[in-house]
Amino acid sequence: MTDFRPGEVIEIGVSGRMAYVQVTHLHPSYPPVVRAIESLHDSGTSDAAAAARGATKFVAMIPLQTALQRVGAPYTNLGQAEIPEDHRDFPTFRMPIRDKQGNTVYWWFWDGRGLSYDTELDAAAANLPMREVLTGQRLIALLSDA
Predict the structure, then answer these.
(1) How far apart are CA 74 and CA 44, in angstroms?
(2) What UniProt keywords are attached to this protein's entry (predicted)?
(3) DSSP tag of 47
């Protein structure tokens, strides 16, 4: 699914500026998990470790290389950097389960191994990433919203 490995930092050209994502996990049945690093930069860096020290803007699943190629976004693999401690465990993703009217009746939570559920979404769960696969276009839009 990917040529990128966990720990690798990818610099992505976004509207004439540079954004960074770090691959954090691979899963045999899903696209890679990445953490987007906060803020856009006017110029790039060759220092993967420096880029990876940035705060996390969001976490998502995306077939990164294919998605970037499909939207024609320029990118460079800066190499390996340490994954921040709070992103070393596989993240838990949330997914709403809706009734026929579109109302959320409960939430599934997936940790890469199994599912659990709850009828309420508390504040902590509301901050979990959505269990969805981003497109390249959506990734670029989210990275642009700095």
Answers:
(1) 12
(2) Plasmid
(3) -
